[in-house]
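Problem 12. The chain below contains 531 residues. Write out its predicted structure in token notation.
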Amino acid sequence: MWKSIRWRTTLIAVLTALSIAVVLPSLTDNLPETWQKKTPKIHLGLDLQGGVFLRLAVEIDKAIENATLRYADEARAVCREKGIPVLGSQKDGADGFTLRLPPGDFAGKAMTLLKEEMGSLDFALGDVRPDGASVIGRMKPAEVQSIRANAVTQGVDTIRNRIDPEGVREAQVIPEGDDRIVIQLPGFKEQQRAIALVSQVALLEFKLVDEGASVDEAMKGNLPEDDQLLYQISTDRQTGKMAKTPMVVKKRALLTGDKIKAAKVQFESRQGGAAVSVSFDAQGTKDFDRITAENVKRRLAIVLDGNIKSAPVIQERISGGEAQITGNFTAEEASDLAVVLRSGSLRAPVKVIQNVTVGPSLGQDSIQKGIRAGVIGALLVVIFMVFYYRFAGLVADFALIFNILFLLAGMALLEATLTLPGIAGIILAIGMAVDSNVLIFERIREEIRTKKPVRASIDAGYDKAFWTVVDSHVTTLITAMILFQFGTGPIKGFAVTLSMGVAINLFTALVCTKVVFDYLNAKRPMQALSI
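Solution.
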């Protein structure tokens, strides 16, 4: 008997000491620095800590339109490579485009070629006129459906990749409905920076500057078919004034950001600002080598989301597969640009339809109310147990202290995020902790009524209630697992605290309370039990 009591008491003492050591860094900062840094902590969620909440609308139709434009550019490039001239192209609805070709059999050849090279599209002959003919390309229904289905998923993945490097703990990026994304950034205070980080499309394109085109004519609307008018926007750091420099560039992108392998911040010694250095993957390196070799002494515009960042002159062939994006960036702007380029562009643009900054005052108010509710709930449970079960109720309250301590330690070890629903889960776990003891104590009462000795009644009460307690906890645990699997952020927090509370309840109800009764009986057999 004494040997069993000793090892159980030692186990409880060791767990208590370890739990206190783990929980303290989450409660106070007045601890040695090494202790603070190396010990995992409980983190506060958006509703307690404050931060940024964003709801984005995914512009799926724009994604289809962008895909159509890319296919049109690809079709023109395929034709050119095979010596088939293309006079121009234009959109034909949201999911189609038309290529205009010279008179002759060029349209037929183009259609045959494109059917072989571009299997995601359907092609058909269009109008045949004396000045030429046209070929109509249209995305297949399956391709359109794929873009619709993947737009939100790809957006969630890309945005999550952008947020992770910012070090935001427990950031929530979850789809909502068919065309919404909800983002929660606990502890993130810079709302505008958060919006810029997650909503930037980050479509990087390298386009040739059309030196022969007149900027003045372009601004009047007189543009060649293959050209477009873009602006290089720069801001004077001292005056804060913004300048827009118009520039005519070719519509067709020679290279895009999907070939980028890495992007990092680089500080320029000459201009004193920050820049972003990008390196391409194997295919991108080959393409960039060919592009620079074919266009020495020409200007290559680096275009990000429709704005020209820089347009340097290609002085020589560049074979290293690296380029630099300059634009008078601050260190923070360059860092954010590097992050979005590494994470890739959003195939479907997003629009912020709701943005809320949750201030620390709201978070502190939530914490105080949650703690107050937890303390009141725990006190009511403690008072009821002592009032109804007397000394046995006091033993149950003794185990309840360990229950709460072990639960907080478990959350700290998992570096879990505490939210208001999580606090609700803790309060529910407190109620369940004494519920197990209620089942056991009622069994003990029944045994005592049959005139059994106290020690035999206690042992029989624990034995007979054992499987009832286990069954009730297992069913609750299954419910918690389902909530965690299918719930969103706050519901997951509730499920985590509830499931941990259930597991710890079994230990405290069946081990911590039983060891007290066993100790009292071993020291001097109890003749009566206040229950």
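Discussion. The chain has three domains: 2-48+359-523, 51-61+146-357, 66-142. Students who got a different answer should revisit the alignment rule from Section 12.3.
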